[in-house]
Amino acid sequence: MRYGLNQSGFPADDLAETCSILAAAGYDGIEPNVERDGQLTTESGRQEVAGIVDAHDLTVPAISTISHWEYPLSSADEVRRRIGVEIARDMIDAAAALDAEDVLIVPAVVDDGASYDADYERAVQSVRELAGYAADRGVAVAVENVQNNFLPSPDEFAAFLDDVEDAGPIGAYVDVGNALRSGLPSRWLRTLDDRISKIHVKDWLVDHHRVTYPPQGDVDWARVLDAVDAIEYDGWITAEVPPYPSFPERMPADVLDTMRFLFEDGGDRR
């Protein structure tokens, strides 16, 4: 396994300081976010980020964004949808520049009163376009399960992948904590199996409806680990958790220690 931290948990605003903390803790990589008109949308910005990451002997396994909540790839507003597509293209360009394998894509955001079928078709259209663009740049699209009222089961998720996979390299970015919101994380893992590109880890408190750190929530980690073993997954495990409110620089090492305990020691569950 290799271990990364998503930007949502970066302990410092300064990237060099964050990379220094993560490298000292023993991380293998970071997962930065692309923001509209942000640093990773320009060639000079991408080169600067690459230099900082390389200087700390880290890698970038994937590129993510939070902008597809504001500009959904399924939007009925064509202007907003096209902005979402352009943001994803920036993600792909950043991934190519940083030698990242994947871009994390939220394929849709479905609101009350929307036509699910129409949103589905627009999501398929957008993801297929992006898969072709990514393929030309040596990057893969990794579709993530999120709380977006879309593809709530692993079977529906797999069917969506069936509808887009011939357009280019496409896989699943399975988020263990998100999977608990709509089902069983172990079933998501077993169903998607070798279609899984990457795994996000967080935990989820059902009664409080919020994210927490693994294994402090309601995820059945023993079953998750059994599923990971069953599908023989040995790729990237990236934490997507918030920094501590106080002493945020301590969170990355704590979470990495937990990830190693779970995925290398098997949580001492056997």
From TrEMBL:
InterPro entries referenced in this protein's UniProt entry, alphabetically: IolE/XylAMocC-like, Xyl_isomerase-like_sf, Xyl_isomerase-like_TIM-brl
Domain Xylose isomerase-like TIM barrel: 21-252
UniProt entry keywords in alphabetical sequence: Isomerase
Keyword Isomerase: yes
One Pfam family per UniProt: AP_endonuc_2
Gene3D superfamilies for the chain: Divalent-metal-dependent TIM barrel enzymes (3.20.20.150)
GO MF terms, alphabetically ordered: isomerase activity
Protein name (Swiss-Prot/TrEMBL): Hexulose-6-phosphate isomerase
Organism, scientific name: Natronoarchaeum philippinense
